[in-house]
Each structure stands twice: as structure tokens, then as C-alpha cells.
Amino acid sequence: MIYLLDTNILIDVITNRKGHGALLEQLLAERNLLATCAIIVSEVYTGMRSSEERKTEALMESLEFLPTTYEIASHAGILRRDLARKGRTLSLADTTIAAVALAYNCVLITQNAKDFSIPNLQLRVP
Q1: What is the enclosing helix (H) or strand (E) of 122?
Q2: Which domain holds residue 13?
């Protein structure tokens, strides 16, 4: 199984909060693949403190990087548009993360399930 790790999960691992490091260790022990994508990398580095730089780089480089293709980007835009027409406004970052997860058939691990209430998207909330 491929798990796409949302920004909030990675930040909690970097800052040793909420036991998410143990969750990632368990998933790896079960031979799952842990992944990230461009939006998540950008978000993690945006909030990184200088004292966390080495730990952040080590964690991020240990993850499989899932590229955002043209098809994924267009799907993210369509998702955002369709949800907005139904009265649900999600950020472009969140719809792009969802589109990456859908394209690579990942389970998205996030603490923000309400931000990812998207048809066919597999979620895991720790």
C-alpha cells in the first residue's frame, strides 16, 4: 500500500508530537511505501525552523516522491471547480494533494479529514 503523508502528519513527526513517528514506523514495518508530493514538500519547508533543517531533510528525502503531472494538475483544478459549484471551497493545495493521492491510488494520512471529503479518496485519520 502507498500512503501519502499530509503536511500536518510530517510536521508532527519532525516535532515529535502525537506519536505519528511510531505510526510511520509501523507502516514501514508492514512493508508499506510512504510518499510525498510537491505541494506537501513546499508546505513542510515553508514552516521549517532552522533547528529542524537536518531532521526535515532526512525525513523528506526518505519518502517516495510522487510527481504532479499535467493530468494530475488538471484533475485538481476540475475537483476544485466541481466542489465549489456544490458550495464547498477547498484550497488548491488540498485539491492537488487529493488528485495526487487518487492518481497513484494512495491512502492519504491526514488529521484534516474535513478538508479531503472527496469522492473515491481513501483517508486514514490517526
Answers
A1: strand 122-124
A2: 2-124
Local structure of 84: helix, strand or coil? helix
Contacts of 125 (CB under 8 A, 6+ apart): 109, 110, 111, 113
Question: Is the whole model's pTM more than 0.85, yes or no?
Answer: yes
- Of 31, 24, 26, 29, give the one whose Cα is nearest residue 4: 24
> Residue 33 maps to which CATH number?
3.40.50.1010
Model pLDDT for residues 49-61, shown as the tens digit of each residue: 999 999 999 999 9
Instruction: Scan for cell 499530509, then name that residue.
Output: 6
Spell out the alpha helix ranges (H) of the chain: 7-14, 20-29, 38-46, 53-62, 70-85, 92-103
Name the grid cell of 7. 503536511
**Total number of domains in the chain:** 1
